[in-house]
Amino acid sequence: MNSEVEIESEQAAPANAAEVVLACRELRKHYRQGNRDLEVLCGVELAVRKGEKLSIVGASGSGKSTLLNLLGGLDTPSSGSVHVAGKNLAELDANQRGWLRNSSLGFVYQFHHLLNEFSALENVAMPLLIGKRPVAEARAEATEMLEAVGLGERLSHKPSQLSGGERQRVAIARALVTRPACVLMDEPTGNLDRATGREIHKLMDRLNRDLGISFVIVTHDPDLAAALDRTLHLIDGKLESDWHQGDHV
């Protein structure tokens, strides 16, 4: 298998863009509802390039979170394929998929999902420890990432001692600490006030620029969507493009 997955579709980035870090082909997902199948995703095609920031928007119940879960390997498609760092998730066993998620993907949700009994430092170090990194190294890298998101003075604070914006910053630091190829975000500013949301936007932009990490963000926030490289609309189970930069180049 090639190390990169090339997908020729209207969702592909311009030809001169960098390599693909996350992709899906003919992705379908249906659920059994009573006596009929409910098809949520109907042959979705997507290619996310290194360092790209894109948003996925759509009506409530259109399948945005379902798509994000499939891209992250947290759910299994009814058919089609998902490729992370050039590897087809369907061809990996459970341990291999877990390792690939830990090393190549980060996740941020509307709710921070921090472990309340652990400090900010311990929460952020967790993915590195799961990946078998030495404790001292994991703590050093977690400290560096928390400093990068402006929480260098909150290392020992537990989630209950942090504001909503600070908790979300910890969640972002946790998602980025492994230096993944791509971070998947589901309504990352949905529970924040407008001012805090803008700060999170700026933070994501800076980290994308400094670290070259790609972002795929499901959002209802038009300001956030407009600030990214491109927006994809999930309509009737398929993605439709709305380019922000380099249209039709």
Give a structural overview.
Mean pLDDT is 83; it is low at 1-17 and 245-249. Strand 9 and strand 10 form a beta hairpin. The protein contains seven helices and ten strands. Helix 5 packs parallel to helix 6. The protein has one domain: P-loop containing nucleotide triphosphate hydrolases (Rossmann fold). It is an alpha/beta fold.
Topology of this protein?
Elements: E1 20-33, E2 36-49, E3 53-57, H1 64-71, E4 79-84, E5 87-88, H2 94-104, E6 105-108, H3 120-130, H4 135-148, H5 164-176, E7 182-186, H6 194-211, E8 214-218, H7 222-226, E9 230-235, E10 238-243
Parallel strand pairs: 3-8, 3-9, 6-7, 7-8
Antiparallel strand pairs: 1-2, 1-4, 4-5, 9-10
Brief descriptors of the model:
249 residues; alpha/beta; Rossmann fold; 6-stranded mixed sheet; 4-stranded antiparallel sheet; 10 strands; disordered N terminus
H/E element sequence? EEEHEEHEHHHEHEHEE
Instruction: Specify the helix fraction band.
Output: 25-40%
Number of domains: 1
- Put simply, the count of helices is 7
| Strand ordering within the main sheet | 6-7-8-3-9-10
Biggest sheet, in brief?
Answer: 6 strands, mixed
| Unreliable sequence segments | 1-17, 245-249
Mean pLDDT: 83
| CATH T-level fold name | Rossmann fold
Provide the CATH top-level class.
Alpha Beta
